[in-house]
Design brief:
- 74% of the residues lie in helices and 0% in strands.
- By secondary structure, it is an all-alpha fold.
- It folds into two domains: 3-109, Tetratricopeptide repeat domain (Serine Threonine Protein Phosphatase 5, Tetratricopeptide repeat), CATH 1.25.40; 138-178 and 194-330, Four Helix Bundle (Hemerythrin (Met), subunit A).
- Helix 2 (29-42) runs antiparallel to helix 3, helix 8 (234-255) runs antiparallel to helix 9 (265-291) and helix 9 (265-291) runs antiparallel to helix 10.
- The radius of gyration is 42 Å and the shape is rod-shaped.
């Protein structure tokens, strides 16, 4: 059979070549000779296959034919040159040279060896397939809680940012309400209407509370940008969560130093309760990053939702007070009684 008549099938030839090497290393020369012969018939340009085949054959003529085939592919192959020289020195090349037709066929493999090899390959293939499936299932189980936590964080941060933006628009009105008004001298029959003590305490509390809420808003924006950005590493998520937790804890400690008026006491308590629940949610989120336990992720999402409910109730009271202060600031201090 001439080389031009051989149809090259690289994939099948490579598979047979690898199996032939494994059989040769295991001492099964007969099986290796059949596998390597079949591989060469599919891909006669595999130089290493010719070399391995020459090492498992016993007929000197067949060995010489394999080494000569190697030299046709690579005339500078030293191993093939040394092998032919070794055969010539021992006068083992007497008679007609062998041809590719004289090489052993793959059918020389015994029935027992074929069954053992087939069962071994089947076990190996099944083991690799099961390992690949388990890897996919593990990846899916880890992805579900991550997606759930990311969605909960995205919803929480979006609502918080929207409400804080609305409050930021009303902040100048509160500031304008507490600025002193220099009034010109008034006739004796007119007098300015003094601001009540409760209103003064309300304005003072809101002014003291405003910087704290500004810091929380900035920390929330930073945490949102890192938490909801695809591709960020888990280490960066953990660092952002820890930094945001320190900011929330500092805000909670600062709230304990404020003295709200009676009309804002409940809103103050609600906002403080929301910060405590937010701390619990961040702690649960850190525990999830440490163990990837879905229970921690679910607890974090629940705490964030509960905290948002308290924040909403407190913001409603703050907004009502801002509107009332705006109305008072719009009334002239020289309105006759």
């Amino acid at each position: 059979m001439t080389e031009s008549a051989v149809k090259s099938n690289t994939n099948e030839a490579q598979r047979l070549y690898q199996r032939g090497i494994a059989a040769a290393r295991g001492g099964h020369k007969r099986v290796a000779a059949g596998l390597l012969t079949h591989s060469i018939r599919l891909d006669p340009h595999n130089e290493l296959a010719w070399l391995w085949l020459s090492g498992v054959l016993e007929d000197p003529q067949q060995i010489a034919f394999c080494l000569q085939s190697v030299l046709k592919l690579n005339p500078n192959n030293q191993r093939a040159q040394q092998g032919l020289r070794w055969l010539e020195e021992r006068n083992l090349l007497k008679g007609a040279p062998a041809s590719s037709a004289d090489l052993p066929e793959i059918d020389d493999e015994s029935a027992r060896e074929r069954v053992a090899r087939t069962q071994g390959e089947s076990w190996w293939v099944n083991w690799r397939q099961s390992r690949r499936d388990m890897r996919r299932v593990r990846l899916l189980l880890w992805s579900v809680p991550l997606v759930a936590v990311s969605l909960a964080l995205l919803f929480y941060v979006s609502v918080t940012t929207t409400l804080q933006a609305n409050e930021a628009e009303q902040a100048p009105l509160v500031q304008a309400a507490v600025e002193p008004i220099i009034a010109p001298p008034a006739p004796p029959i007119l007098e300015a209407e003094p601001i009540s003590l409760r209103q003064s305490m309300t304005v003072g509390y809101l002014n003291a509370f405003a910087p704290l809420r500004t810091r929380l808003r900035e920390a929330t924006d930073t945490f949102r940008n890192i938490a909801v950005t695809p591709g960020n590493a888990s280490v960066r998520h953990v660092s952002a969560t820890q930094s945001f937790r320190e900011t929330v804890a500092g805000a909670l400690a600062e709230m304990d130093t404020l003295r709200p008026p009676l009309n804002l006491q409940q809103a103050h308590n609600d906002y403080r309760e929301g910060l405590e629940l937010e701390l619990e949610g961040l702690d649960a989120l850190l525990e999830y990053y440490a163990s990837f336990n879905v229970e921690h992720a679910n607890r974090a999402a629940i705490r964030f939702q509960q905290a948002e409910a308290y924040f909403d109730r407190a913001r409603a009271v703050f907004s009502a007070q801002n509107a009332q202060i705006e109305q008072i600031s719009a009334i002239s201090p020289y309105t006759p009684r």
